[in-house]
Structure formats: C-alpha cells, structure tokens
Amino acid sequence: MSMQYSATPTFDPTDSQKTVHVGYKNHSNRNTQTRVRRNRLKFLLLFVVLLSFSLIAIQSFHGAFKWTRFKLPGFGIGRECVYLPNDDSNAYGGLPSHYTLNSGDKIPSVALGVWKAGRGEVGQAVKTALERGYRHIDGAWIYGNELEVGHALKESKVPREEVWLTSKLWNTAHAPEDIEPALDDSLQKLGTNYLDLYLIHWPVAFSSGPEAYDADLTANPYPTWKKLEEMVEKGKVRNIGVSNFNIQRMKNLTANPLKILPAINQVEINYFLPQPKLVEWSKQSGILLEAYSPLGSDKRVKESLNAPVVKEISEELGITPAQVMISWHVQRGTIVLPKSVTPCRIVENWHG
C-alpha cells in the first residue's frame, strides 16, 4: 500500500469527530495515534491545572478589583455570581445607608428578607449576610423559620444592638388578647427580649383558632393597634407599623387617635409595580415604605432584570441589573428587602 505524506501535522478544532490529522493518509500508524492521544491528554491536564490556579488567584486577589465574575457550582445556576471586596461596606453610590423613622430611630436601608428561606438554609443565609455587613433582618412568624434565624443571630457574635430585627403579627392574632402571646412566641424563638420593628402582617383579621374571617377587626384595626402601642410602652417593641396596607386603609387607621404613628408600611414594590401614589402619600405622611419582592414577584424577576432600561443602566454604570434595581429603590427613599439564600447573591445585593 502506498503512503501519502502531508508535510505538517495538523489539528482541526472544527472537526465534529474531534479527530487529529497527523499528516498520514490511508495508513494506520498505531504509534503515531498513541503519541497524539498522549499529547492531547497532557494538554487537557495542563489546561485544567492552569484554569484551577487562575480561579484561585482571582479569588485571592479580588479585593484589587471592583468585582470579579465567574460561575461556580452551587452558586446559582444560570445567573452570574458577583464577588466583591471582602469588606462590610455597601457602596450604593452615596445613597443613604440608613433612614430616620418618625420615632427618631435609624433603620438600615437594605435588609435581608427571609421569606421562603427554608429550614436548614435560612440560618446560613443570615450568618453570611451579617458577616458581609448586613445589619437588618426582616422576618415574620408565619415564615416558620424564626427559631433558626435566632440561632444564627446568636452564632454570628454580632451584638444584638447592632442588628435591626423585624417580625410580623399574623392574621389569627389581631384580637388584643392574642397579641402579646404571639409577640412573646416570636421573641422566644428569635432569642431576644425586644424587636426593633413589629408589623401587622396583613390588613385582614382572622378569628383565633380555625382561620375564619373577622370582619370587625379587619374593618377597624384600631383595637389591634392600641395593643401594639402597649407593647412599645412595655419595651418589647421599639417601633410598630403595618404591611400590605393601601392608601385608604392607611387613612382609616391614622384617622384614629393614635399615640404612635405607624413607622413603616411594608408592601410589594418593583419594576412592574412601582406604586408611585403610595410612595408620594407615604412621604407626605412621614411614613417610610419597605419594598418586598424588590426585584420582581417570583415569576417576573428575570423579566424585570432583563428589561432594556435596566440592562442599559447596568452596562453604563458597570453594575449588575439587581444592583440597579436596589439602587432605584433606595433612591426613591424606600427600604429594600431583597431575599436570597445563595451566598454570592446575598453579597451582590449588599454592594453596589
């Protein structure tokens, strides 16, 4: 059999069969093929080693950069993670780190929300957040994770007085006689003797026991509010507020002879639900808004983060779409409550 020789051995990266053309045609040369396989294996191993060292180096020296991006297993599939300098400062471009409530207390402008944070993961999320500088944790009795949050707060070693802690009164405990026991249950689980903020979770009351609608306390939450004022006087709560109240419900509540004005109204605010009228009314009334689902409701997060105007600002400022959205909330004078149990996203949401 004749042997045809090609002067230069070649490797074709476009070859779908991943074959190496060694220059010999119509001839089976086992020694040559073996050498090629060995060379390919050496190249692959060298590539893996170099890649590993590169990633380690990037992580080691990431403090020299504004942030470093790459994907790693376990840090969110399909979304780029952002690693930032290892410090505890959030850097939302000169935007306020705290707001002053009508009580005079200062509340951090960015919090970790723990809604839907499951058992076994919420504790680590809280510890990660506190390690990276968060000092505001937003929870609720109905979330079912207050005990684990309390353990994480204790294990973090961050002094209690440095952490702003919020919980919420559930619908079945609006009756005045049920409020203090419900509050005490949250305090015990969280491992603290006071809350910085206690909210009426929804403007809907249920009778205690089986959840049955309570029309009287829903229409007029003033008896519930008066009992919450007593909790402030007892020192169990420093500030009180509401959640999911629209303007009319706020007017109905504040029309009563209140000793303490609501400090906060926590509602859903995001790209698709900006709530401009509620924002303006709240500013005029001296009541701060907190935004939950700030990046979008569950099914619309990707849609809001991929909105053309958000992406345009993100590229112009060199920050992520999530950071654009959080900055927008703070710029409007709204406290923002992004939630995550993914370490890199917790960090990303804190830094700008």
TrEMBL record:
GO molecular function per UniProt: oxidoreductase activity, acting on the CH-OH group of donors, NAD or NADP as acceptor
UniProt keyword annotation of 4Fe-4S present: no
Alphabetic keyword roster: Membrane, Oxidoreductase, Transmembrane, Transmembrane helix
Domain NADP-dependent oxidoreductase intervals: 112-349
Pfam family, one: Aldo_ket_red
Matches recorded under Gene3D superfamilies: NADP-dependent oxidoreductase domain
PROSITE patterns assigned to the protein according to its UniProt record, in alphabetical order: ALDOKETO_REDUCTASE_1, ALDOKETO_REDUCTASE_2
Origin superkingdom: Eukaryota
Membrane-spanning residues: 43-65
InterPro entries (UniProt xref): AKR (IPR020471), Aldo/ket_reductase_CS (IPR018170), NAD(P)_OxRdtase_dom_sf (IPR036812), NADP_OxRdtase_dom (IPR023210)
Annotated protein name in UniProt: NADP-dependent oxidoreductase domain-containing protein
Taxonomic lineage: Eukaryota, Fungi, Dikarya, Basidiomycota, Agaricomycotina
